Amino acid sequence: MPQQRLYSIGEMAKITNVSVQTLRYYDQIGLLKPVRVDATTNYRYYDEAQIYIMDLIKSLKYIGTPLEDIKKAQAFTPEEMLLYLTEQEKVMEHKIRRMVEVQHTLLKTKKQLENHLLIPIYNEVYESVEEQQRLLAVRTNDLTADYVPNEYFSALTKTVEREGVAMNSRYGGIYPLRPYEQLQHVVYSHVFTPLLTDRYIEVLDDEMDVLRMQEGQYACIAFKYDLNTYLSQYQKLYQYIQEHELTPTSDVYEFFVQANYSPNETPVYVMELKVKIS
């Protein structure tokens, strides 16, 4: 019977395209121990079967399997290996869905910033085509535009974080389009934050809804937030709709966003009011 061919650690490294340091580490942790170690020189030797074992190790490592689990997998029967790979497939599918959602969140965040930078004019009404947006909203009672308690925004934040999705830095409110003469008469039906995910929100508190701001043509006005000038800015929007004989088909969507981020600068907030028109 021919003698089994043995490979030195250097030869094994070249054949399997794995570094000598990695082979020594795998020996140290018991993942791939050489079949023989020379008692005099302490040289490690591997057999041909271990080349195929290394292929298995590399394949499982490629799909993200921890080394400790790879050690266990070496003792699997073919049936057990099939079951394990099926479980890993489900893990990969979950990770892929997660990464797609992260990418989607990134794109939506970029789009929001692009739209903010592309506001054509401040303190004057303009028309804009808006995309559909999903809004996580809290129903409110007797809440006016001159006072928005932080507990509403806290409730939105808790719900978003509980669902494991990214929090938006934009907030807003919804109220009817009317000829207001005093800011205290502006009463919100909802306060909201735009959702950065299309995922179904599984758990909503009793006072919460997921609303949709429909796509279409909107009359808009943008301005730096100042409570003293809010009403006059709103009145410009209302008068524009009346003077141009436009038909409003939505309530007023109010978007509120911080325009700078440096802790060394005085915060600047931008308000956008939008009404769908036809």
UniProtKB/TrEMBL annotation:
Stored Pfam families: GyrI-like, MerR_1
Family annotation (PROSITE patterns): HTH_MERR_1, HTH_MERR_2
Signal peptide: none
InterPro entries per record: DNA-bd_dom_put_sf, GyrI-like, MerR-type_HTH_dom, MerR_fam, Reg_factor_effector_dom_sf
Keyword annotations from UniProtKB, A to Z: DNA-binding
Gene Ontology molecular function, alphabetical: DNA binding; DNA-binding transcription factor activity
Official protein name in the record: HTH merR-type domain-containing protein
Species whose genome carries this gene: Caryophanon tenue
